[in-house]
Structures are given as C-alpha cells and as structure tokens.
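[job 4471] stage=fold_predict status=RUNNING
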Amino acid sequence: MRLVRARVTNYKSIDDSSWVSIDNVTSLVGKNESGKTAFLQALRRLNPVPGSDAEFDLKDYPRKGYVRYKRTHKDTPATVVRCEFELSDEEVAGIEASYGPDALSSRLVIAAKGYDNQLRWEMDVDDHALVQHAVRDAGLPNEIVTLAKSIDTVEKLEEMLRSLPERPATVDALLTDIAMRFRKETEQQIANEHLNRLMPKFVYFDDYSTMRGRISVQDLAQRRSGFGRLDDADRTFLSLLSMAGADLEDLENEPSYEYLKAELESASIGISDEIFAFWNQNSELRVEFDLSAANPQDAPPLNSGTILHVRIWNNRHRVSVPFDERSKGFVWFFSFLSYFSTLEDEVDGDLILLLDEPGLNLHAMAQADFLKFIDERLAPKHSVVYTTHSPFMINLDQLSRVRTVQDMDERGTVISEDTLRNDRETVFPLQVALGSQLARTLFLAPHCLMVNAASDLIYLQVLGEMASSRGLTRLDPRWVVIPVGGVDNLPTFVSLLGESYVSVAVLMDVTPTNKEKVERYSQNGEGPSRNPIKWVEVTRIRDADIEDLFESNFYLSLVNQIYGQELPAPLTLKTISGSNPRIVQRISDYFRNEDICGGRFDPYRPAAHLLQRHSEIRERIDDTTINEVGSLFQRINSLLPTNGTSSTETLQSIAKAPGLIAAG
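[job 4471] inference complete, writing structure tokens
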C-alpha cells in the first residue's frame, strides 16, 4: 500500500492544505511557522507506530473557529487528515480472493481520521461484482443464477432469495453466508479484514527525538509503567536498548551491567558503521556508556537513583563529551538511526517516515550526505516526507519532489507543487540551492556563455530544440549558460571566473561603459584563462535583445496571455510605439507610464509561459525566427575551440575576425 497523496484540514494553522501529491521522497520547503510541522504531525496521527501520539485533541482546532466548533464537535466531528493509498497487485488479489474479481472499482483507497479519532475508509466497491461473486460460488440452480444477473446490491439479492417460492438448500446456505460475510457494510468489512492491517505505520522524528546524554533509569522505568508520560527522546533510547536485547531492569542490576554495556556498545558500533557509510565529516567518533549514582545536587529526576551516561568519544582528540552537548549533527544522526533501525525490525509492514527538519545541525556537506542516505538507505524500502528550509537539503536532480508550504492570509497553510506562485521567502531555499549549483557549475565548466536573465536561458532552450528539429544548428552542449542578472553584474562575474575557463562569451545588450570595463579587464591579462571576452550579436540590428528574434506580434501575444488580467487592454504595436528598437524596452516604458503592475514589466513571465505551453505555442513561431536562431547558434558555437587547434589560438583568430563585436 503506497501513499500517493494527503490532505490536512482543520488543524492548527491549516484550514485546508489542499491535496498534496506524495512521491517516494517528498520535500516540504517553507519558512518558519508556515505549517510544515503541523502537516507532519497530522499525518502521524492517522496510523502511528506503537507508543506515539495517536489521538487528535480538540485544542488543536484552528483558533479562529474554535469556539463555534467546540459547541458542535460531538455531533459533527471535523475531519483532520485524509490519505489516499494505492493498493499493490498482491493486495488487490487478497481482497478479490474474499470478495471476487473486480470487487474494487479502483485500487485507490482513502483513510481518514478526525477529532472523534475514528479511522474511516473510503473506497469504490462494485456491488454488482460482489453479488455475482457470491452467486457464482453458491452452486445455485441455473434459473436462480439467471434471476440474479441484474441484481446489484447484497440487500436486493437477499430479498430475491427470500421471496423464492421454493428454496433449495444451496439458497439457504447462501443466505446464511451473506448474513455472516456482510454482517457490516462491505467497506467496513474490507477495511477490518484487509486495509487496517495493510496500512503503513507513520513514524515522526524531529530534533526533540534526539537521545539524551543522561538518563535516570528509575524515572524512565516509572514513566514507562504508566506513572508519567514518555516523550520521543525516551522512545529513542528504549529503541537502542531493544536493539541490544536488553531492558531497563538490566540497568539496575549491577552484576549484569558489564554484559549489558558490551551489548549496548555492540549495538552502537553497528549503528555507527552504518552512519559512516554516509557520514564523511568525522570518522573518529564512537558512542560509550557508563553508570553512576545520581548527584543529589542535580535537578530532578537526575538527583536520585541510577544514572546512565551516554557519551561520545572523539578518537582524534582523545576526549569524551556528554552525548547531548557536542557534535549535534552526529548525535541527531545516531539517534535517528537507533530509533529507525529498531522500528524496521519490530514493526510488521511498511513505514512512512516523517522527518521534521532533519539534520538541522548538520554542516552543509553533511546535509548532502543525509540526502544520499535518504535516497540510498530509506527510500528503497519506505516513503519519506521531510520538511526543510535549508537549501542544502534540496536535491536539485529531483525538483519534482519539492512542495512549497506557505501560510497565506485568510487561507492558512497551503501546500503546492507550483513554485512560481509562492512568495520570495518561501522559495528562497530553492533559489539558494539553484544558486549554489550554478556556482559549482561555474567552477567546473570551461566554456561559459553569459546572458542577461533566466528568460534568455529559456528562449535558448526552446528555440534550440525547434532549430534542431528542422535540421539547423543548436547551441553546442559544451556551453554553460549563466544568467548574470544584468549588464551591471557583468564585470563582477567575469572577475570570478577561474583559470579553468577556455571560452567566455557574452550574449546580451551591453552598454559601452560595461563593455569597456570588461575589454580592459581582458586586455590587462586578468580575465579567465587570459583569453579575451567575446561579444555575440543577437540580430543584425545592433541594439537588440533576444526577444527581438521573435516576430513582434508573436511576442506581444505572449505578453497579453500572461498579463491579461493586469492589462487594461491587449497590447498592440501601436500601443507601445516608440523610438527604441528593443521591444522589451518599449513594453517596459508602457508599464511604467501607465503604472501597470507597479510600473514594472517582468520579461521572465512571458518566457516561463512559453516554456510551460511550448507544445501548443511553438507552431506560431515563424520560419524567419528559427532561421535567425540557427544563424545565432552558429556564431556562438564558432567561438569554441575546434579539434586539433588550441583554445588560445582559436580565440585569438576569432578576435581578428570581422562582424563579431555587437551590442546584443
């Protein structure tokens, strides 16, 4: 049974999260207090592992409607969480063995739970298939089987069988079987016999689940016996004990302590070995255990009884420190793996791991290690949903698994797959992650093509595919296209390029001042690989942007489609008439003069629209544009070194060639 989507309503900051699709690994990205934790906590209570919080409390209902709901909650308990699962072939076969082929119209089933804390299931049951299965297996006479062919409910079948003037023994046996098999609603029967057992257990783990460095053995034993409450940190330590095959009573029995200590350290070595398969920060750590009498001067409950000390030994510095006071990243990783490893051994069935800000104290590179741990160790066996606001916990090779979480006015927490419709703070981790990847790309690739903005990159991609499909030249894949954010940033980006660069070209409208700065930088021998920066013209018109490759009315149609609600009327060439040959500049002037969208035109929006709808829109791009694109790519690719020629010689020869210095 695989979780495919989930929805949380009426819980803390969440009025309605909307349906959230769940992949094998799902990342919930958002700023603090956006509702990420509330979403995980609601999921956890649907079917938690033993010992975890299982019930919803009325106090968690959203405050703005709490008083009104409190008066009616007993009669109409609100639903909090709904999870849609997909049944496997084997699970469907198990249900059909009891209820017949096609008993379920769909293999998608929904489990729901609310403030009444009753688990409910929703499924599409084919009543006609159920009836026909019961009739086929009953050995009824043919004339009765014929009568039953049109019956589509168990109640109608029972009514027909009882109305027969003569009832063979097989009819009475079927009536008895129906009364036993369908003593409850069919959906409830299927849930009781199959779905409740098949549903995965939800495991929640956060920073508060980290194992403590000092534990009062007697206090923990009392609370586990019912005289108090266990928290997640307690359960983590009890998991480690379970892995060692021990119990709390063994810790109080001094003669057996040395044996227990050996078992605990053996368990910790096994966990540490698994960690170090993914942990590249420091391999000189190990976990140690010791017992002592309590210090009466310590705060309760550590001031009496026997205290177990968990410590981390650092072999590099040959010192040990309390477990919860040093190396917090390693402590978190060790605690999580202790808890998870025990559950994996003890819980029968699948697990869905809900990790709240995992690895918050991990170094950026260690967070990358943990992402690898998720993909290679956890995801092959279990679903993982984790929250983060760290850019280093986002796998840029798997952006499809990112969901953004935003707390919106009047709507509460909303979770979405659409990153374009979120505020800057919500998507900031994504932006930083992309920026980090961009920076790494800069230092690895030898051929850099600098463009003005991300919209340019989109146009190069879409138009390049179209040119290639018509047999024209497309951009050589050796080029790394870098949006630098405007010509003012060009000198800074050029100065950051390292000696590994061979070819550097600029495809943008460049002011004479910035062009002079960069050329002076190159001529002084300070530029990348001591090779000159090359300028590439967009069109034969000297003052042009990449948008000017398009036929003017086509580009205006993109702007009108994406800005339709903000514009007083669709733009025309007459509307944006002006002396500037650059269409983007004329549109920008119009937006500013008419105070549309705060006076600012964003060229990225038409580009993004073309990217999203290019399969529909591409046929409207004329042949002239595609031919000019092919010519443009030929000029850009000519700046790359050719086989048998050194890069320096190639660039020097190109520098002397006419017609390559241009404004755009």
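[job 4471] summary: Confidence is low (pLDDT under 50) at residues 644-664.
[job 4471] exit 0
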